[in-house]
Amino acid sequence: MPNCFLISFFVALSYLVGVLNASIGDSNPHYKSCVEQCEKTGCIGGRCFQQCRFFSDGVSVDGPQYMQEPLYLQWKQFDCPSECKYHCMLDREKEREMLGLEPVKYHGKWPFKRVFGIQEPTSVLFSVCNLAMHFYGWLSFFILLHYKLPLRPKDRKPYYEYTGLWHVYGILAMNAWFWSVVFHFRDVDLTEKLDYSSAVALLGYCFIMSILRAFSVRDEAARVMVAAPLIAFVTTHILYLNFYKFDYGLNMKVCVLMGVAQLVIWIVWGGLTRHPSRRKLWVVTVGSALAMLLELYDFPPYKGFIDAHALWHAATIPLTYLWWSFLKDDAKFRTTNLIKKVK
Ligand SMILES: [Zn+2]
Q: What are the TM regions of this chain, as residue ranges (predicted)?
């Protein structure tokens, strides 16, 4: 198993080198002049874009007075270049396809075809499925603990010591998938930051949970001692990304580090423990490691729709189901043990 992680580390490193390089697509002179021309005139060839109609030297050229609100103008100003880049990219890709060439990246991203204005429809679809799966998992976990399993007689609270912590996990996971849906729907600065920040927060929290559960940290003070430095680290990282520098390379390193660390913890714990559901844990951890390789092995979108990232999102759907199933088993297992102890 350690070999597997070594491989994923090296793949991650080679991927980082790729990320740091400028994209081939947007450095092409034809593409550059197409975008420049389009932003100036609002048209490519015979096609003109609504988003670009309001601008000529930064002053609105037509449209009624109410449409000249600053916010509206800002939106248009920001949307015209994105529209131009998108259509110039499609044109370039069509030319490349006719020459029998492989797709290339533009501004660090693969060329995706929009469907009803949705930028990456397959990633949106799979993100929605993940969100729904987490909601189902969390809801069934909630019902199990608060309505099906016996409660402590003195305070009517669940016996399971990690109940509250897994509730927080469920909320953070649903939050992360919600912003993933929004980001893949439309990739702009704000949605990208919200998606990345939520994902890092979730990953950091999962890392804390892996330590707390695998080492059976049940004492409140000890939990705070473990969580505080990690929360401080993750918070600083998120603030750095949002308010100082949005560094993809650094973020990738932080995510791979936290991701691999928690996988190692779960796998080692899964190997040592006599937990009745350890097989589910193995499947989830090995599956997550393989899914991570998929994310790191970054191939272009098939037919402009399905890329490695979308497949990664698809792979996490069954893993999410199994993960919540493991958590429910864990709650049952701990509750039975604790009741036995009380008796
Ligand atoms: Zn995504």
A: 124-147, 159-182, 194-212, 224-244, 250-269, 281-297, 309-327
Best mean pLDDT range from 10-14, 228-232, 297-301: 228-232
* CB-proximal residues (5 Å) to ion ligand 1: 180
Domain residue limits at 228: 116-342
Q: How far is the CA of 119 from the centre of ligand 1 (A)?
A: 12
Reported pTM: 0.81
- What is the tens place of the pLDDT at every residue in 286-298? 999 998 888 777 7
CA atoms within 13 A on the CB side of 232: 6
Q: Is 70 a member of any domain?
A: no
The answer to whether position 155 is within a domain reads yes
CA of 322 to the centre of ligand 1 (A): 20
Distance 130 CA to ligand 1 centre (A): 11
DSSP per position, 165-184: HHHHHHHHHHHHHHHHHHHH
- Of the three residues 69, 87, 111, the one that is the final residue of a domain is 111
Residues 177 and 225: their CA atoms lie apart, in Å, by: 29
